[in-house]
Amino acid sequence: MKADPDRSLVEACQSSRTGGLEGAFRDLYEAYKDRVYNVCYRITGNASDALDASQETFGILFRKIGDFRFESKFSSWVYRIAVNASIDLKRRSGARQTSSLEAAEEGGNESVQANLRDERQEAPLAAASRHELEHEVHSAIGRLSPKMRAITVLRYVENQSYEEIAETLQISIGTVKSRLSRAHEALDRELTPVLDQYYLR
After folding, report:
1. Looking at the whole model, is its pTM more than 0.90?
2. Where are the alpha helices (DSSP H) in the chain?
3. Domains of the chain from N-terminus onward
4. pLDDT of 75-100, one tens digit each?
5. How far is the CA of 186 from the CAs of 119, 123, 169, 182, in angstroms?
């Protein structure tokens, strides 16, 4: 395994005797707060739940960081906690809320659109209005099940490889490919009418 770029920071947190969010823990929080929130937001679909899931993520992270042994990348462990916290929150609430148009304009939109264009090679995607299509794509992602949403977010927002997703979610690469395939099918069903409309303009 390649050297973990977060190793020195994690080890500083593990050796720290201070409590609370200061020193190395503050540096770790600053390094990951936006990424964790982004993942939580894309899975939960709204800012309030994303904040709750983010807080849960960092609570678990700081309580258990002393047990981390670099058997996987630290970033994969953080994403795993964030994904699980977000899915657990959605299960508890029993709600499947979709992103609002205004909130969907936050970071990560271009990444989703570009990757979907590359993998699905849909001509209408290239021709569609960026603003409208981003909204439709994110609304469709928001209607996926939490597990499907999580794997789509890791692939198209966080740009993780199949191997990285497998490590993050602790599933096989075959399962990653299978879930992504089902997510693509669901997105195709959601987006085909939209793409047809854009194509006929």
Report:
1. no
2. 7-15, 24-44, 47-64, 74-93, 101-104, 109-120, 123-127, 130-142, 146-156, 162-169, 173-199
3. 1-97 (1.10.1740.10), 106-201 (1.10.10.10)
4. 999 999 999 999 999 888 774 444 43
5. 15, 19, 21, 6
